[in-house]
Amino acid sequence: MENMPPAKSSYQHIWQGVKCRIIAVVCSTIAISVNLACSDSANTLEVQDEPPTVSFLSVQPSQIDLDTVRFEANGQASVRFRVETTVQFRNTAIRNVRAMLMPPTGTEPVATAELRPRAGNMVSAQYAGDLDARLTRSSVGTFTLVVIPFDVFGQSGGDARQSIRISDSRASAPVLLSVDAPDTVRIPETGTRIIQITARATHPNGVSFIREVLATRTDNRAITFRLLDDGDRNGLSGDQTAGDGIFTATLQVPSTNTPAVRTFEYQAIDRAERRSNVISKNIVFLR
């Protein structure tokens, strides 16, 4: 009798080896499913990793003309977007749903907002809210509104995106001032030859408002190349200084090129898709 282990209580006998599944519904919009594995040695929390996913997204307005917006004395305007979304979930809980307005270029959002729950059931929930963005006259182009759901463990689920077109009908088009390209290019016998073409352009809203200068070959308009003002002197463009209004393209002429006279049309394009005047230049390719 002295060597026998002490008897376990009835509670301990019941608890040993129990596996239980808990489903809780909070505010009719959040469902959570957790597996609890319990033993004498340790208690283990097993979570089924199925983060929530956006199944529906509506954003209004989807287009904005800045000429119809009231600007303040500081040159900024406040624009409100109404965002409504539906989130699907299984075996997880929705912690929050976030909306972000992303600019045409860059990784930092222009504005963010937390959407609030409206209604739901055991498999989906509706969220809605207003996203307020501060815009300037140069805030034009195709923005992207992104909605991301997060579960209670901080994992982001499947997001949804909608394009937001922001234009300014009052803004003028860019002006292409000049193009500097070689008149003659000798095709190399082997390898490639590097040539550089530059263009000068301006814009009433500033040079940064110009997205690119596009060159199009007139005998085959599917052949184009871009001149950029990005300061990537050691990169693809070879541009020396960003934002100085000089757009650059660095091109390779291979030995397989055919002797011919090629005509290229150059045109500056701004972030509102407005196009400048056209300047044409011929390049004679010979051996």
UniProtKB/TrEMBL annotation:
| Source domain of life | Bacteria
What is the protein's given name?
A: Uncharacterized protein
Classification from the root reads: Bacteria, Pseudomonadati, Chlorobiota, Chlorobiia, Chlorobiales
